[in-house]
Amino acid sequence: MTSTGNASAPRIAVIGGTPATLRKVRAAGFEIVWVYGPQELDPAGLAHVAEAYLTDYREPAAVAELLETVHRSRPLVRVVSIIEDGLEPAAAATSRLGLPGNGLELVRVLQDKLAFRTMLAERGVDAVAARIGHTAADIRAFVAEHGPTVIKPRYGSGSLGVRFVEDLAAADEAGAWAAGFGLHSFLMEQFLSGTEISVETFSFAGQHVVLALTAKEKLASFVEVGHTQPAPLDQDTARRVEELVFAMLDAVGLADGPAHTEVILTAQGPRLVESHSRRGGDRITDLVQQVYGIDTDALAFLWYAGRTEPVRPGEPSCGASIRFLTAEPGVVDSVEGLAEVLADPAVVDAAVTVAPGDTVVPIAWSYDRCGLVLVRGRDARDAAERAGALAARIAIRTSPAVTGPPARTLDTIAARPDRLVGAAPTGPAEPTAPTEPSAVPDAAGSEPVGVAK
Fold first, then answer.
1. Which residues pair with 65 in a beta bridge?
2. How many CB atoms are closer than 10 A to CB 339?
3. What is the pLDDT of residues 117-128, one digit of tens each?
4. What's the average model confidence in pLDDT over 230-248?
5. Beta-carbon neighbour count of residue 169 at 10 Å?
6. Residues 51/70, Cβ–Cβ less than 8 Å
């Protein structure tokens, strides 16, 4: 279908995304070819695109074939996605059409946690012991060799299926849990003890820039329930983190666009957890915009259009923090306090994603959270304290369900668990979920930051 087109504008294919994203693409001067799933389509997005193709965009080969046909008719200059489950299809099309951007090999290395660890070790960037396991015996052997261990899906997102194994005594229990959960093949990694942060970067033709450092709060299940910027790092630690992340980006070959990298600050220095060839989810980009005035998505499309020079963040203008809501498992009786929280002048956004009659389940991954509160503060500490206090004012009251919750496995949690945590039929899989693991969709940003040419 045709809605909005400009025969003289460069054409870009966008896989997934919201109307807010599409507005930023158009503002950068592109004509848009939109690829989206018919059941997830927001019709408001059609007003911003020249062509729309409704298909299962999570099939890399099919998307590449579709866009090859589109490209033959009127050439594309780039294929992109800012959502996790669109990254591999975008990369497959990028590689097939020979366009600039992140190709299939790069994206698959970042999504395959074992391949990522193996490549970094081979290139001398950050050697963390890791290998595939299938049974409790495998876990025992790995723990005996490397000490405390984390087991996780080889491909996955949203902290789904991550388990800490403290010692040999816990290995059998972890193996039984993995089998019962349906995680019959998993990655075993040496546990990195320390504070976790994420590093939001943007690469301009190989010139890497740190946009922000994000502090995190996590549950024992590894699910993240809070983010705060700027993270409280001293200058030397921040420099070491930057050097490590830049070395990793060079090693995997990420030269253009945003990246989101998780790092543990251990007693021996910063160590890498994983990285993604996209901006951070969980509304982290909103924190970047509040604190530094940088709209990461708008910056990306301006850069792809050749309409901005490299951008570096200045001093933080404030602190910003997001706190995700949780509740006792059971049936929701009532939700109170949201209106009062929204009225607080420090609140940028707040939302509750459950309502009376809904069922709250034990938190196994990011989608099990119940909402969020995003606030500004004088600085990071003030913002984090405000976010925690305001989140506590939202009461989600539940009652035990009449019948106990069904056993939760990969099959019951994820609609397509084979794609989320297993090997894909055509190669390493990309995590699949309807959107990035955030409680509500990303909000539209303000004016893009960049130097327009």
1. none
2. 9
3. 999 999 999 999
4. 98
5. 10
6. yes
pLDDT band at 450 (very low <50, low <70, confident <90, very high): very low
* Residue-level pLDDT at 429: 32
Q: How confident is the model at residue 404 (pLDDT cuts 50, 70, 90)?
A: low
Q: Which residues pair with 349 in a beta bridge?
A: 374
- In whole numbers, what is the pLDDT of the chain averaged over residues? 89
As a whole number of angstroms, the distance between CA 349 and CA 327 comes to 19
Give the torsion sign (CA, 119, 124, 128, 134). Answer: positive
Phi, psi for residue 11 in degrees, rounded to 5? -100, 130
Residue 161 confidence (pLDDT): 86
3-state SS of 56-83 is CCCCHHHHHHHHHHHHHHCCCCEEECCC
- Is there a cis peptide before residue 230, judged by omega within 30 degrees of 0? yes
| Domains located in the chain, CATH noted | 11-101 (3.40.50.20), 129-191+408-448 (3.30.1490.20), 192-317 (3.30.470.20), 318-405 (3.30.470.20)
DSSP 8-state class, residue 324: E
Residue-wise pLDDT for 93-118, tens only, equals: 999 999 999 999 999 999 999 999 99
- Is the CB of residue 50 less than 8 Å from the CB of residue 74? no
Are 198 and 262 contacting, i.e. CB atoms less than 8 angstroms apart? Answer: yes
Nearest Cα to Cα of residue 367 among 181, 182, 227, 157: 157
Strand ordering across the sheet containing 224-229 = 269-276, 257-266, 195-204, 207-218, 224-229, 319-325, 371-377, 347-352
- Cα angle, residue 183 at apex, residues 182 and 187 outer, rounded to 5°: 180
Q: What is the pLDDT of residue 156?
A: 79
Nearest to 251 by CA among 214, 205, 206: 206
Residue found under tokens 């876990």: 139
Q: Which two tokens stand for residue 186?
A: 């998993």
Report residue 434 as tokens.
């309807």
Tell the burial category of 124 from Cβ atoms under 10 Å away from its Cβ (0-12, 13-18, 19+): exposed
Report the distance separating Cα 447 and Cα 439, nearest Å.
24
What are the tens digits of pLDDT across the range 34-64?
999 888 889 999 999 999 999 989 899 999 9
pLDDT > 70 in the chain, percent: 88
